[in-house]
């Protein structure tokens, strides 16, 4: 579910409680909990991991397939 957010990052957005809830509750920096009706999330930068290596993986897979075929027909 979250791979797309990691791959492409997110824009700044407001986080609100889930349906049926009135507030958010999360651990505070000084201990205890912080309770808020909403928070402003600044967004997150992208950490590309899937599409950046797609060409390398495709080339490696093609080479591997050709080596398996060559070994199978005895053409090392």
Structural descriptors:
two-stranded antiparallel sheet; rod-shaped; 76 residues; alpha+beta; 2 helices
Description of the molecule:
- It is a single chain.
- The longest helix is centred in the C-terminal third of the chain and has 20 residues, at 54-73.
- The protein is built from two helices and four strands.
- Strands 1-4 form a two-stranded antiparallel ribbon. Strands 2-3 form a two-stranded antiparallel ribbon.
- It has 76 residues and is of the alpha+beta class.
- Strand 2 and strand 3 (33-36) form a beta hairpin.
Rounded mean pLDDT is 89
- The run of helices and strands is HEEEEH
How do the strands line up in the largest sheet? 1-4
Helix residue percentage: 25-40%
* Separation, N- and C-terminal Cα atoms: 43 Å
Radius of gyration: 24 Å
The description of the largest β-sheet is: 2 strands, antiparallel
- Beta fraction of the residues? 15-25%
How many E strands?
4
Number of helices: 2
Morphology call: rod-shaped
Would you summarize the structure shown here?
By secondary structure, this protein is α+β, with helices and mostly antiparallel strands. 34% of the residues lie in helices and 18% in strands. Strand 2 and strand 3 form a beta hairpin.
């Amino acid at each position: 579910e979250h791979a797309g957010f990691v791959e492409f990052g997110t824009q700044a957005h407001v986080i609100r409680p889930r349906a049926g809830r009135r507030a958010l509750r999360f651990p505070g920096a000084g201990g205890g909990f912080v309770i808020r009706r909403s928070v402003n999330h600044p967004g997150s930068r992208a950490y590309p991991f899937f599409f950046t290596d797609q060409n390398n993986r495709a080339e490696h897979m093609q080479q591997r397939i050709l080596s398996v075929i060559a070994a199978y027909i005895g053409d090392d």
